[in-house]
Amino acid sequence: MSGYGIISALGFNADENLNTLKMQKSGIEKSMHLQTSKSVVVGEVKASNDQLKSFANISAKKTLSRTALLGLIASREAIASAKLEAAEIGQAGIINGTSVGGMDISEIAYSKILVGKAVNINDSFSGHDCGHSTHVIAEQLKIKGYNSTISTACSSSANSIMHGAMLIKSGQLNCAVVGGTDALSLFTLNGFDSLKILDSEWCRPFDKNRKGLNLGEGAAYLVLESEEHIKARNGKGIAELVGYGNANDAYHQTASSPEGNGAYFAIKKALDIANLSAHKISYINAHGTGTNNNDQSESWALQNIFSHDLPPYSSTKAFTGHTLGAAGGIEAVFSVMALQEQSLLPNINLNQPMGIIDAPNTIYQSKQISNVLSNSFGFGGNCSSLIFSKA
Amino acid sequence: MKAYIHSTSAISAHQTFDKSSYLAELEVSDHTFLKAYEPVYRDIINPKLLRRMSRIIKMAVACTNQILTETKVISPEAIVVGTGLGCIQDTHKFLKDIITGEEGILSPTAFIQSTHNTIAGQIALLLQCPNYNFTYSNRGHSFENALIDGCMQLGDGKNNILVGAADEMTPDVLSILSQMTCVNNSSHVGEGAAFFMLSNQSKQNTPYLQDIHTSSNIGDSELGNNVQLFCEKNGINYTDIDLLMLGDSEADDDQHYKKVKSVLKNTATLSYKKICGEYYTSSGFAMHLAAMLLKYPGILNESTILPKFKESIRTILIYNHHNAVNHSLMLLSI
User: Fold this and answer.
1) Distance from CA of A147 to the nearest CA of B (A)
2) B178 touches chain A (CB under 8 A)
3) Which of A282, B24, B68, B267 has its CA 20 to 30 A from that of B60?
4) Measuring CA to CA, how many Å separate A4 from each of A45, A174, A285, B141?
């Protein structure tokens, strides 16, 4: 892994994100840009669509979903940080993950249509599908290799990272930009609210009295390369993706099994691929959404994998909100930052531990870190785990 | 590596699900698009589960059940699905409820069913299958992405990989699509599902996918080169190809399809979208039809829709493009 880029409620680039994490300052607030009648707090990127267009070098006249804009900003930073040259970018692949694609634009247009107002149909809906943001990123950044879009709800971008790694391992790609993007939308906000798993106040992952999640938005991408490729171009590896695993919980369309079977299998597969025993994991960036169901299920999966060797863990969702299809990418970047900084990331808003496993780490503090596990679980029973190691 | 197709099942605008009367009669529908000709689901899917399923899930599960019956596989080692628009009926329903109810209290059912990976997730749930479960949604390459991953899983040592394509159309979505400049003939819009059980084990009389190639935003000359390189890479001459299956429709005057026809000018052609229509994952249907023609040479004998071909079709090349952006080549043999 030779580079990364990130945009979230914590900042517009990697440095801003890391600094805000260090300050233990959440990016979750009342929404400024999403027009909703709901009284909730969200992890919104602190910029309007017009501001994002300006950051992304996109003409103000062009209609582009927030999902595509966020993706473009973060993927451009990833490529710059890996110091890839034009020819290398041209041959690279892009594997993008998103859950609702351009829904932020189509839902506004559709609300106008329903009251008989005229809208530009092409502008409003041609970016609705998940593949659109991938297409925009590939076109704008001149990435001409294999492109693919994964949509597996909240594990989408973790799966993109996994898929990119497998394409490199199988020799089909030498270099891939992998990650994902999702913007806040009324669709997902009302969807999670209808499931009664939104906390209208700040979410409290792994707290005994947690009430639900806060939604967020953002995008993050990594640059993955084969060893031959990075050596041939004299690139510098920041970290190594050593393990990945995907499994299905096969319990319920939206709920996790109480004992966390899918999560257990995903972590187990990732450890097997990495050829690491569980006690070699130095830090876990948990999925930890703050819902009653997830945090219980994930705690049991961790208990069953790690038993007495549970390493420090934390959820960073109380900083960024749950960024859905972008979460796996954002938390992969956080996991790599933990490796680079040799520091544990904090789990904020914790008052009382749940009592299933030891309490999560609650302060930003230095620790020797060799291997980091990052979990991402989604609807449809989709469970994914990634393991990053020092380069 | 070769991906042997141990079974395939598809639902399209005409009878393709019941293999005993495969494409026998032209189904005339009074719909404004090429609506899927669906089987009687209660004979195939547990009626208690049927109630909650949207059409895209019913089509995908029916195809899966037929494949599992034919192959006697209980739990695939991977489930990989491609869908262009996902569960668009439930997505639309939930969005409409949000807007008309002004963000009031909503039933979560449509939201729960709306995520793109509901299809692969529901199959895993029904089969209690804990294995690898991926969903691709990448415009006109949604199925191709899934197929490439499925083949990679075979290469990684897994076997019995369920790969599928599914998309559904609704009158509301059609009304939006028909106003878009990229859709020049909305009566040609289709929908459907096509599923496959891929294996690394060869069996007698079993078609296989030899190779697949995708490219985006290419011109005519690059397309011609791609066809040539693809055939060379797979060690076949143009004369080895018995049938060229194309995603064109009879009416259109499309330069890309013309180009491929001109490269393979002596090869018989078949335009498969007259059966399934145009949609993001129509190439899934193309691969299904190719596998059927290879496995059952006489299957079109009674067909009133498609012409009969010479007795032995051994090798088929499929070329499809979506909106001149997503191009794909697939090579199947037996």
Assistant:
1) 8
2) no
3) B24
4) 18, 17, 17, 26
Last residue of some domain: A212, A232, A252? A232
| CA separation for the pair B195, B146 (Å, rounded) | 11
Are residues A98 and A64 located together in one domain of the fold? Answer: yes
Among candidate residues A154, A175, A203, A383, the one labeled active-site is: A154
Q: Domain ranges in chain B?
A: 3-199, 208-333
Asked if B105 lies within 8 A of A248 by C-beta distance, the reply is no
Mutation target among A129, A160, A267 for the B interface, most CBs of B within 10 A: A129
The answer to whether the Cβ–Cβ distance between A149 and B145 falls below 8 Å is yes
Q: Within a 10 A sphere around the Cβ of B314, how many other Cβ atoms?
A: 14
Question: Per the residue annotation, which of A128, A132, A163, A322 is the catalytic one?
Answer: A322
Q: Name the amino acid, one letter, at A225.
A: E
Which of the listed residues A232, A257, A290 is the one where a domain comes to its end?
A: A232
Interface of B with A in 44-83 (CB under 8 A): 79
Q: Half-sphere exposure of residue B114, counting CA atoms within 13 Å on the CB side?
A: 24
- The pLDDT, as a whole number, for residue B322 is 93
pLDDT exceeds cutoff 70 at B251:
no
Q: Which two tokens stand for residue B9?
A: 């099942």
To the query of whether residue A252 is one of the catalytic residues in this protein, the response is: no
Tokens representing residue A154 in the block: 């909240």
Asked: is B208-333 a CATH 3.40.50.720 domain? The reply is: no
Has A132 been annotated as catalytic? no
Structure tokens at A27: 């990016």
Is residue A154 annotated as a catalytic residue, yes or no? Answer: yes
Specify the amino acid at residue B172.
D
pLDDT, tens digit (0-9, with 9 covering 90-100), for B112-159: 999 999 999 999 999 999 999 999 999 999 999 999 999 999 999 999
| B130 in A contact zone (CB under 8 Å) | yes
- Which of the following is catalytic: A163, A175, A287, A383? A287
Render pLDDT for A114-168 as a digit per residue (tens, 0 to 9). 999 999 999 999 999 999 999 999 999 999 999 999 999 999 999 999 999 999 9
Region B3-199: CATH code: 3.40.47.10
Mean pLDDT on A63-72: 97
Residue B181 has pLDDT above 90, yes or no: no
Q: Would you say residue B304 has pLDDT above 80?
A: no
Mutate to test the interface with A, among B77, B97, B117 (most CBs of A within 10 A): B117
Residue for token pair 């005057």: B253
Yes or no: say if A317 and A203 are a contact pair by the CB < 8 Å rule.
Answer: yes
Contact B132 A247 (CB under 8 A): yes
Q: A248 CA to chain B: closest CA distance, Å? A: 4
- pLDDT, tens only, B25-84: 888 777 889 999 999 999 999 999 998 899 999 999 999 999 999 999 999 999 999 999
| Chain B residues touching residue A194 (CB < 8 angstroms) | 105-108, 111
CB–CB contact A191 B105 (8 Å) = no
Q: Is the ipTM of this structure higher than 0.90?
A: yes
Residue B101 burial by Cβ neighbours in a 10 Å radius (0-12, 13-18, 19+):
exposed
Reported as a single tens digit per residue, the pLDDT across A200-243 is: 999 999 999 999 999 999 999 999 999 999 999 999 999 999 99
Distance CA B193, CA B187 (A): 19
CATH number at residue A380: 3.40.47.10
